[in-house]
Amino acid sequence: MKRKKPCSFVEKCGNVTANGNCMTANGNCMTANGNYMTANGNYMTANGNNSNDEDGTSNGKQCEYCMQVFSRVQNCVQHKKICHEKECEVRKLEMKTGTKYVPVPSKTCRFCDKKFSRTRKHQEKCKKKEIYKKKLQNLVTKMDVEITKVKTTHVTNNTQNIGCTNVTINAVGKESLEHIQLGKVIDMIEYHNGKADRASKLCVIAGSMVADFQKMIREVSENRNLKVSERKQAALINRNGQFEAEEVNLALDDTFKSTSSHFYNTMNKLEENQKQQFKRHTREIHNEVYQLKNDGLGGMRTRDEAVVRKRFKLANMEFI
Ligand SMILES: [Zn+2]
Ligand SMILES: [Zn+2]
Q: What's the gap in Å between 74 CA and the centre of ligand 2?
């Protein structure tokens, strides 16, 4: 990505904060590299693209602790050595529980939203921070209890299963796709394209297709390598030939990327077969699926992510 200069924008609004960032009227903040940061923690580039598309953590330009996006991988590596969020206890808990980090403009406490000249000094005694921390700690405890429970049940189930079923489960990413008929995939794509109206977001349409493709993958029992349930914080995921308990959102994130990749390749095959290029809308979907396989659910805006995550979770609850 080319480095963008914030100057023109800063001049326009004149509302520059101490570190040179600029607040727009709608409360978005423009960082030094010219990206906007929205309230829900996503970055927007000056041309309106969500910069996670090009700068996602997947290509090493985003700090996973403070979510800051850099124009070069090297800058990001340097930053991570001194990132102030890296040692933060609350941030550690957020990462453990798969809770999204919501960045705020500088000089603002991200827990109570108030402005301070020395935010970190304030945070030593911020009450909202303590409450939030307790909430996350409770979540971790709940998660640990569930994971232990799931592990125990799993061991029992596993022994029972050995006698009656002889299915070798394919690990995540290694699913077999032979049973999937391309005609059905075309129908599914057309169904979603037909349902979408002008207001529908591409990432939500593409994400819903990925969820439906996941249902197709799971039609054969050897591909059912993820077990999630309605309210449980723990999932069972088969990454290397055996099931392990894991936080449900982390398990969903990786599976979603993997299925997006399968779907992307299958769409390639479809385009090859029909011997002509996709029409405009389908091509846009195909490009969107490419982003999904790289950035996953986390690359979307919070609201879109919630919709797609739910659909994808439900897709994984079939056949259980
Ligand atoms: Zn950082
Ligand atoms: Zn505070």
A: 32
